[in-house]
Amino acid sequence: LTETARGITDSDLSGRIPVEGHDELAQLGHTFNDMVERLDDSFEQQRQFLDDVAHELRTPITIAQGHLETFGDTPEDRAETVAIVSDELERMGRYVSDLLLLAKAERPDFLRLGPVDLGDLAVTLQQRVWAIAERRWVLDAAPVPGTVAVVADQDRLEQAIVNLAANATDHTSPGDEIGIGVRVDGRTYRLWVRDTGPGIDASAHEGLFNRYTRGATSRASRPEGMGIGLSIVDAIARAHGGYAHAVSEPGAGSTFVITLPAEPPGPDHSVRDPDIDIVPEPVREVSTS
């Protein structure tokens, strides 16, 4: 035990005590190994957070620095530089907020649970998303307000759907249709955003919700950074005991779905990703534009 403890540092937490038997010393060994495992996970989260910060902030810092180094003498040049630098500072602020959110996702206070009326949630979402961009916003399906309630964090659910809606606007054009919907399926409920964009290349499906993973069309339309919006969606879904996935084919648009348990989030109430490839097309129960 002493030898293993001395060999553990902040850069090497791989040491474990070989445990044999079931006596008190063996229990102490298991407890020590569990403690080191938790420390290792904590340090890994810190390293991942720092890597995320460096990755996300490098591009806007480079852009701002480049424009400041070529700061012009005319009022027009100065105004243009100030505008560009201000945009990059705002972008960095958004990145930092997103990264802090992901870092907090593992904490027990990440969610603030309460009753959520799914019908009211759908109406609220429809009112929020139309301001993101000029699109034909459609409410695909939703329970009648006041008929279905679940225990969840409404702010986080709204944040996830708004992220998906913003992602859909990045892959569509003015006049294209984007639908949102909410549906109860027995012991689970689903929230989705679908678009009529170009779809997602098949090679990007597997790691779509991983940090920095983007398809070819996304890299073309948003070259300024990799983005972590879908990772935030995934973190919110998992915190609720559910999962997020996408259904898409090139040229046929995309549907991003969050599936959650109707029971309060917890180890006894979760839904497993069935690793399905196709989700039935949403049925339009309510339609507005």
> Average pLDDT across residues?
78
Total E-strand runs: 7
Major sheet: 5 strands, mixed
- Indicate the percent of residues in helices: 40-55%
Spell out the CATH superfamily of the largest domain.
Answer: Histidine kinase-like ATPase, C-terminal domain
Q: How many structural domains?
A: 2
Total helical segments: 7
What is the overall silhouette?
A: flat
Separation, N- and C-terminal Cα atoms:
67 Å
Q: In angstroms, what is the radius of gyration?
A: 23 Å
In percent, how much strand structure appears in the residues? Answer: 15-25%
Widest β-sheet, arrangement of strands: 2-4-5-7-6
Short recap of the structure:
The protein is α+β, with helices and mostly antiparallel strands.
Structure, explained:
- The protein is of the alpha+beta class and 289 residues long.
- The chain folds into two domains: 1-104, Helix Hairpins (Orthogonal Bundle), CATH 1.10.287; 114-261, Histidine kinase-like ATPase, C-terminal domain (Heat Shock Protein 90, 2-Layer Sandwich).
- Helices cover 44% and strands 16% of the residues.
- It contains seven helices and seven strands, in the order αααβαββαββααββ.
- It has a five-stranded mixed beta sheet. A two-stranded antiparallel sheet has the order 1-3.
- Strand 4 and strand 5 form a beta hairpin.
- Helix 2 (24-69) packs antiparallel against helix 3 (75-104) and helix 4 packs parallel to helix 5.
- The radius of gyration is 23 Å and the shape is flat.
- 27% of the residues are buried.
